[in-house]
């Protein structure tokens, strides 16, 4: 019996359950952002810890299966699986540890870079720090490809709201106001997860 048989569908179940909890936390952050125009660091940290906890749990399960099922000597034979917990594909999107980290870097780092450049050129604030941190965590869960789809969809949602508000408010729109981006990110996550 191999460790991969013992683990069975654990990555799929763990990935699906953690993604569902991530969506709940993201909806909570969106509600706070709508109400208070801020995203609590504790919620963003909880999302990141959730993502990491699933990875650690799966690696621990693989290690326990090796130790219990094969003894210490046989662990060496299946050490590749334990060592490759980083490459274990976690559902619902089949992402590895590297995919998640790349997503966090692309979404979080990219958003930060674009925000800094925009603020320097336009001489006005752009994206808030909470939005940037939230996008980094979204990248962990979606990876960089789905993460970019999420960002595109979120920006499209904001654009549509901006256009609609200009019609309602005599051409002024919401450009002069701070805009809660977390709800748009939530919509983007849902759209990207369907694609």
Query: Helix-strand pattern, N to C?
Result: HHHHHHH
Mean of all residue-level pLDDT scores: 82
**First-residue to last-residue Cα separation:** 36 Å
Cα shape: elongated
Our estimate of the beta-strand percent is under 5%
Number of helices: 7
Helicity, as a percent range: over 70%
Low-confidence stretches: 1-6, 72-77
Biggest sheet: strands, sense, closure?
none
Structural class: mainly alpha
What is the rounded Rg? Answer: 20 Å
- The tally of strands reads 0
Topology:
Layout: H1 3-7, H2 10-36, H3 41-75, H4 79-83, H5 97-122, H6 129-168, H7 182-194
3D structure, described in words:
With 195 residues, the chain is an all-alpha fold. 77% of the residues lie in helices and 0% in strands. The chain is built from 7 helices and no strands. The chain has helices at 3-7, 10-36, 41-75, 79-83, 97-122, 129-168, 182-194. Helix 2 packs antiparallel against helix 3 (41-75), helix 5 packs across helix 6 and helix 6 packs across helix 7 (182-194). The protein is elongated. 32% of the residues are buried. Mean pLDDT is 82; it is low at 1-6 and 72-77.
């Amino acid at each position: 019996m191999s460790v991969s048989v013992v683990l069975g569908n654990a990555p799929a179940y763990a990935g699906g359950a953690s993604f569902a909890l991530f969506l709940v936390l993201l909806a909570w952050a969106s509600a706070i952002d709508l109400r208070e125009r801020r995203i609590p660091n504790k919620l963003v940290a909880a999302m990141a810890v959730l993502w990491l906890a699933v990875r650690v749990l799966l690696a621990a399960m693989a290690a326990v299966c090796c130790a219990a099922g094969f003894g210490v000597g046989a662990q060496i034979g299946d050490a590749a699986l334990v060592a490759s917990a980083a490459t274990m594909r976690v559902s619902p999107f089949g992402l590895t540890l590297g995919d998640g980290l790349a997503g966090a870097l692309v979404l979080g780092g990219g958003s930060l870079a674009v925000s800094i450049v925009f603020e320097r050129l336009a001489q006005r604030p752009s994206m808030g720090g909470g939005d940037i941190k939230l996008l980094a965590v979204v990248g962990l869960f979606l990876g960089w490809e789905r993460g970019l789809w999420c960002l595109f969809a979120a920006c499209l949602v904001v654009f549509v709201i901006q256009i609609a508000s200009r019609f309602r408010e005599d051409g002024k729109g919401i450009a002069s106001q701070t805009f809660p981006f977390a709800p748009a990110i939530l919509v983007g996550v849902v759209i990207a997860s369907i694609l």
